[in-house]
């Protein structure tokens, strides 16, 4: 997370902005050279070579030569503003000529004094043009190899001559801008700038009178302060590099930081940079916060120095800047200050950072939202900050950011919510605004975000007990209906099975969930279905759809060999004109229906042959086989008829076996008919299996035209089912 949006200038997009800025600032009153005549590359090459020839022949202090050089450089700079011509300019040998003119030419006569012709103007134009050429990365090293850096560093020092003219300001600014472009994303050139002594004059220029120069110097330092592994390694390898550059610091062998950063700090840049943070000029404080951010990046020791130097409050102040880029950098920097190795999380909150950070969450600027969420996520790792962020209104905007299509923004928001969920005082607030539903329903782009959300839900689940649960139950009693429903939905997913009866039976939570099924809002219907399904699964470890019930233990087993065996038979059934031999003792023990038949006042009591008119032979045979053996294989094609027979003769064990077999056939197309069947034969387990299927498959069933009618039909039985299920001891078998 340290690498979030921390960058040097210019980035890919900012480089174009810088070029535009250079164009606008470069003597706008000059007549712009026309490019319309350069229709062919050959003509362009000829023109460039002509200007290069002028530069090669005019390196002198004679006024005419200086004027010629100035005009030639101006032509080249105008051409260089078009990126399509940059390669031609370089290929025609312009770089060495421009580098040569970065320095003042020798005096024409010894002892000559007084103003020099076009003093600083030619050098400024050369630096500006080289900066434009350096926008292409492949030209950076070429320019440096031509010897540009020492001359550019010398130009930075011209302010030491005691002259603060507009020309001096211009040449210094162009030199700083050129260094920025040359060092952009080029670690070796950053190192070369340091070796050439470029950092001390840049630090000095932070206090220059001209604010444009301050800004340019800060921009260069910002680029040089960006990560540079080569310089980091040099710290470990050579103590001499400290002595050679007159740096006096205590070095700890286990610390790894960028040497150039240390030099910037050792040049006493921090006090000035921190003053610049308070500047009313947005460009100034934007560059300053960028420099500090890059100094702090991956360097705990510099981070401590920056905080000790008093950066915290002005950085917090930038959160309210009118410049969104400064706000973004400030938020990122505060996130770095609040890292796990920092002890200033609480100080940041105490000094007023939370409110502007929360306001930034609602900005139209995606990067601004991303960085503020990042900072809040870091701050939310402290338990007291967690409560403060929630109390200041941070929960709702963070939840809204979960809908973002930006993966980094989404993850930062999720991480911040994970922190807030750690505080018991925030749990009820998260739930009452629909946070649990938002976390459950979100479409998260990257796996780390999905993992973070899962951990947040788990963290909430672990806290729903004691005073948190009491608070939620209180909301279910007194809050507005929408909040009551959100609480009931969240508790259905997160509460302990041991608390289900208290929540959903004693505290009316079940009624709230069932009401959602009757809503005309599909989202409410879906939320209610998913919550009730989760509740049912928690109420029992076994589902009637998933596990076959054990057969009851019969009082008498005559065994397989006595099925339809005339041996010792004392009763005969006539089915479809065929005889089935049976034994009263076995039948009497099997069910109340047979006991009533043979012991009651029915005509079958003394009959030897009993006709069975409404059952097919194969169905009756299976029923009798169950009575004689205690088990039977129920095939789906015969299960419904066998269920009817089992219900007629009150054979509960066989009935439940049939219910299980039929339950395997429940589908979107059959569930309505199977539910009717369960009602017709009082098949409670099958009925419950249908209920669970209807809840689980809401997304498919809700599209059916008969869905609403089916829900109205099953609601009473659904209520009864949950009342019974939630009243049972946890882990009870639903089939018992």
From TrEMBL:
It holds the Pfam family Arm. Signal peptide: none annotated. Residues 1-20 are annotated as: Disordered. It comes from Nyssa sinensis. This is BTB domain-containing protein. Pathway: Protein modification; protein ubiquitination. The keyword Repeat applies. Keywords: Repeat. InterPro entries: ABAP1/ARIA, ARM-like, ARM-type_fold, Armadillo, BTB/POZ_dom, SKP1/BTB/POZ_sf. ARM repeats lie at residues 93-148, 147-197, 197-232, 268-310, 352-394, 393-435.
